[in-house]
Amino acid sequence: MTVLAARRRLVSFLTAGMWLFMHCWAEPEDADMAKAPYQALDRGLLTIAMAVDDPDLYRDLPEQEDTDVLDCALDAIFGEAPPSADEEKALQILAYVPQVFGTQWSDARYGSQYLTERGGYCTGMAVAFVALCRRANLPARVVSMHNFELARGHSAAETYYEGAWHFYEPTYAMVFYTKPAYDHTGVIPSFRSLLTDKSLLDNGLRIPVPLWNENYVKPVDAIPEPLDPSFRDAPDRPPLRESYTHKFLRSFPCVGSDEMAASYPIDIDFRETSDIWLGEVDQDDMDQFGEITEGRLPRFCGIRAIGKSRFHTAFATFFVRAPRPGRCRLSIHFLHADRKHDDLGVLELRDVVLIGIESREGVWTADLYLQDAESAFIVANRSGNAYIDAIHAVFSAE
């Protein structure tokens, strides 16, 4: 094992309820020594990430977007001229998106693709809403809530105007408001505000348009109204107020940005057993999400993939508890069993030493020495994306 003289500095901070871990590496004291083998982010990107609420980061469309598709949709939404008020623009786009989508799945990536295929569930609607807002000169971004119970998560959006971010729910044409009725004197709060003040969830408002029927009918006024009881308390789902309270207070929140990385926590507790499986090696990743153990659901259960996703770069932070110091052998099995993931690496955070890494087709293994009863380390991906099938951890005493 190579000992590195480079000094490592870990900066952690909370953005929109999400812990971000950004790693900066100082120059080694001995210039002839190898630099650290893995650099998650350089100082320039760290500076950008610290200013992640800067709306200028969320104005540009990806070059892969088909602007003709977006312009056609905006023509249908605005007619001859868009409204002058930014909030009115956003509300009219909000009234459009859930109408033109259906209920089918889509593996599209960009807003114009989702609009063309008219599928993709909450993610598709959020991405399409963001693309249309940006094309209409409104900074916008996807926000998401991960790992609550057996669902993978839920995606919505924020758009920026009047010096602040505002949360929009494209799946249901909903917003939350600081007053019981929409009267232009209250405020549509931000995702951050909803995460930290659950009283803001009391005033859920909805533009009364049909949902998910792949047909757009332009409303006379895209004005949010108090929720109709038949919609709010529909028998085929939990009551809406309780559902959103659960999402905001129990999920792992994330703001999408090309310039930041999100850490998803994974707990490994060896105090009662020395052999732990998260999921099974079965080429199916649903069993690692919110698995019920002894009648209980874990609050957070990691991330579907390690590496670059459509919204940000994701990596896993392992928090390990053990009865005493000892060795941990961590194996991550992947959905693509014929691929090797040589670019995965480990960053030791607390009371852990990396002994070695082995990579073979379908599985990546790290051997670590746990120096104390509680240890922490990061598993990250230098390039690409590695989809997790299952995680296996084994502890052995000294």
Features:
32% strand; 8 helices; elongated; C8orf32 fold; ten-stranded mixed sheet; single chain; disordered N terminus; four-stranded antiparallel sheet
Mean pLDDT comes to: 80
Rg is 23 Å
Low-confidence stretches: 1-51
**Integer tally of domains:** 2
* Corresponding CATH architecture of the largest domain: Roll
**Assembly state:** single chain
CATH fold description of the largest domain? C8orf32 fold
- The shape, in one word, is elongated
| Main sheet characteristics | 10 strands, mixed
Total helix count? 8
The first-level CATH class name of the largest domain: Alpha Beta
CA-CA gap between termini: 18 Å
Work out the helicity level: 10-25%
Percent range for β-strand residues: 25-35%
Series of H and E elements: EEHHHHHEEEEHEEHHEEEEEEEEEEE
Going by helix content, strand content and strand pairing, the class is alpha+beta
Number of strands: 19
